[in-house]
Design brief:
By secondary structure, this protein is α/β, with parallel strands linked by helices. The protein has helices spanning 17-27, 35-45, 60-65, 95-103, 120-131, 151-167, 201-205, 420-431, 440-447, 462-477, 487-492, 510-526, 540-550, 584-593; strands spanning 4-11, 72-77, 82-87, 107-113, 136-142, 175-177, 220-228, 237-245, 247-249, 253-257, 261-269, 278-280, 284-289, 300-303, 310-321, 333-337, 340-354, 360-361, 371-385, 396-401, 404-414, 452-457, 482-485, 530-534, 555-560, 572-574. The longest helix is centred in the N-terminal third of the chain and has 17 residues, at 151-167.
Length: 598
């Protein structure tokens, strides 16, 4: 049985990629019957010289413009295995298409015109292949016929481009001198380059090693959606997604990150009569679990006995920017990793590099079009991901600016932020959590709404607590299951062992007080109710403690008093505490739009 391999071919515009592939297809008899004659006849009718590139240019406007604008996929086979050759565009305006094609590749050919030599996109594409984790590469020094098949020209290109590759930590890349238009060293050795003792394109492509099949890797699946059926008393909640790596079978125990809630696969659901016993990488799947834990879109499903992913909201990445506007600090974007979508900001630029010249600027604080950057991103909430050295597929992400994909890259490492230690404890807590027989979904059905945590904060002022109690009554009058968790009550009971600061309501170890309150809030939201908690002067880090504890339940903050006294951005601000109760109706409406109480 033949195996399969994806190979991308790229390079600077007009350096002959499509011609090389066309010649490879023609000389190995891989073209459909009559295709070669059909294209030659078409060229003759239009008084146009025949080119092998025309065999691949399926789009009419590609032939009229003479450039490849999309990543064409060509099926080809040798005696060893089957291939999908991805012909990626070389023009700078279509770098996004090139990145898309290269991201699916196991290996790469990069074409350099022997006559023109190393060009801007020769370097840029080499850098991108390296950044995308394409570990196997071969450089084809094409159009040797234009330089008289001279060895010195070939050696000059090899010397210059090898130096560039070493600068980006890419070594031992083979080079082959070829002529796509004449067929030299494509499928058979060239008689016009007797000095060349290396292989041909055909012999080298078979030397590429196959990557470890995705089926053999640990299981990874981003949750696409959760479906619930009501017809004929169907109580199933089906978690759906596409398997990125590994395989899944009934009885497997899964953990959903970043919340670390766990459950076992009860059944694999399938439309049709033949239900598969196991699903593998690349397959779309739906399954049910034994304990009906709360799972949301974007969470990463992992087997309990396999390598855990990373979780966090601060990450170091390598990023390539394609947006028309620069990637800047203080502007909010959207990061997409699998099915996860989360707001993200550029926190810091460690190094910004011009990908064609490799000129780096350690002082540059924005990333402009076609720049490559080593930078730090912060997401609005913790997310689950893998680093590229572990699993390249689940380390890749894109950045969306408005409605356009403006950049993409790979995650190099998670940076331990202030919440990392507590996040580890919460993951451990959730892995050991003893789930009751009443599921959160069942509570939602009976209560008519899901759980939420509402934090009412602001400067020390008794009117803040009064507003929180009035908010509790408003929700109660609407028929919601709601509970007011006043911080004074916690200090009087749960925290009675803690020393209170003089002239201050809060204990000396405020961090521990916040942790205890967050753990209590988690128990209450697990009971399915809306919790309204009060904490004065809530900081950003303290709010993140609550978010970490109750994830994936949403936390919403209402600030009562002067907002400039906080570094925690609230969802709703009431600047005058005396006017708080006048805002009740607006706050209820605002929270309804956010999904609280539904």
């Amino acid at each position: 049985m033949h195996s399969n391999m994806n190979v991308v071919i790229t390079g600077h515009v007009d350096h002959g990629k499509s011609t090389v592939i066309g010649r490879l297809m023609a000389d190995t008899g891989s073209l459909p019957n009559g295709k070669l004659e059909q294209v030659k006849a078409s060229c003759a009718r239009n008084s146009k010289p025949f080119e092998y590139a025309f065999l691949l240019d399926a789009l009419k406007d590609e032939q009229s413009q003479g450039i490849t604008i999309d990543s064409a996929r060509i099926f080809f086979k040798s005696k060893k295995r089957h291939y999908i050759i991805i012909d990626a565009p070389g023009h700078i305006e279509f770098l996004k298409n090139m990145v898309t094609g290269a991201a699916r590749a196991d290996a790469a050919f990069l074409c350099i015109d022997a006559h023109e030599g190393v060009q801007e996109n020769s370097r840029r594409h080499g850098y991108l292949l390296s950044m995308l984790g394409v570990r196997q590469m071969c450089v084809l020094v094409n159009k040797m016929d234009l330089v008289g098949y001279e060895k010195r020209v070939f050696k000059s290109v090899v010397r210059k481009y090898s130096r560039f590759l070493r600068n980006i930590n890419v070594y031992n890349v083979p080079f082959i001198p070829v002529s796509g238009i004449e067929g030299d060293n494509i499928t058979s050795p060239s008689g016009r380059m007797s000095w060349w003792k290396g292989g041909t394109v055909l012999t080298l492509i078979d030397k590429f090693k196959e990557e470890n099949p995705p089926d053999n890797l640990p299981f990874r699946m981003f949750v696409q959606d959760v479906f619930k059926f009501t017809a004929m008393s169907d109580k199933r909640r089906i978690i759906s997604g596409t398997v990125s790596t590994g395989s899944l079978a009934e009885g497997d125990e899964l953990v959903f990150y970043p919340s670390a809630k766990k459950s076992k696969v009860s059944s694999i659901e399938h439309f049709g009569e033949n239900k598969p016993a196991k699903v593998k990488a690349g397959m779309a799947v739906g399954f049910t679990v034994t304990e009906q834990i709360y799972v949301r879109r974007g969470q990463l499903a992992v087997r309990t006995n396999e390598k855990q992913p990373q979780t966090g909201n601060v990450m170091r990445v390598n990023l390539f920017w394609l947006g028309r506007e620069p990637f800047e600090r203080d502007k909010e974007y959207v990061l997409k990793n699998g099915t996860e979508k989360v707001r993200v900001k550029l926190f810091d630029t460690l190094k910004v590099i011009d990908a064609s010249s490799l000129h780096s600027d350690g002082m540059k604080k924005m990333i402009e079009r076609h720049d490559v950057a080593d930078c730090v991103l912060t997401t609005q909430r913790p997310v689950a991901f893998d680093i590229v050295d572990d699993f390249p597929i689940t380390s890749r992400f894109v950045i969306v600016d408005g409605y356009e994909i403006a950049g993409g890259g790979i995650i190099r490492e998670v940076i331990r932020d202030n919440q990392a230690k507590y996040r580890d404890k919460v993951i451990d807590r959730n892995l050991r959590w003893d789930i009751g027989s009443i599921t959160r979904e069942r509570r939602r059905e009976i209560y008519g709404h899901g759980p939420s945590l509402l934090m009412v904060s602001g400067p020390e002022d008794p009117r803040k607590s009064e507003f929180a109690k009035a908010l509790e009554k408003s929700f109660f009058d609407l028929g919601k299951k709601v509970y007011y968790l006043g911080v004074r009550n916690v200090l009087a009971g749960l925290d009675s062992d803690m020393r209170i600061k003089r002239h201050n309501l809060y204990p000396e170890d405020r961090e521990e007080m916040i942790r205890r309150l967050a753990e209590l809030a988690n128990i209450l939201v697990d009971a399915g109710i809306i919790v309204i908690a009060t904490v004065s002067d809530l900081s950003y880090d303290e709010r993140e403690t609550f978010r970490t504890s109750v994830s994936p339940v949403e936390v919403h903050t209402i600030w009562v008093g002067a907002p400039e006294e906080s570094d925690s951005r609230a969802d709703y601000v009431i600047e005058e505490a005396a006017e708080a109760n006048n805002h009740l109706t607006k706050v209820i409406s605002h929270l309804d739009r956010l999904g609280v109480g539904v």
